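Lecture 7 notes: from sequence to structure.

We start with a single chain of 118 residues. Read the sequence below before looking at the structure.
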Amino acid sequence: MSLKQELHQLSNKLSAAKRKLDAAHGRGDQPMIDRFNEEVKALNKRIDSIKTTQNRRLDQEGKKTTSLPFKRVLTKAEQADLGKLKKSVRGLVVVHPMTALGRQLGLEQMTGFAPKKF
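Now the structure, written as tokens:
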């Protein structure tokens, strides 16, 4: 299971546990309140761990991409025929500004990173 799927699944479990905790508060059922408080704490801890892992992977990918010696903004014509461009430039990495990597790098336009000038 990917980190994204696991994060989504844990978020669903967390919201269900919070609903059950609210219901237990309404009933005044102290053993159930204690149980769900522990469950919420455990789920929050696991979610934080997964988010940390995602951020670490994104940082590694960003460092790997920015370490490529050449980068430039792609023209509209190049963006229109990206397949042709990728075939002609070996090792090209295209980063869109709306992706997580693009936001992390602070890109404003679609940018290509490559080991050689293109």
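The chain has a mean pLDDT of 94. Keep this in mind for problem set 3.
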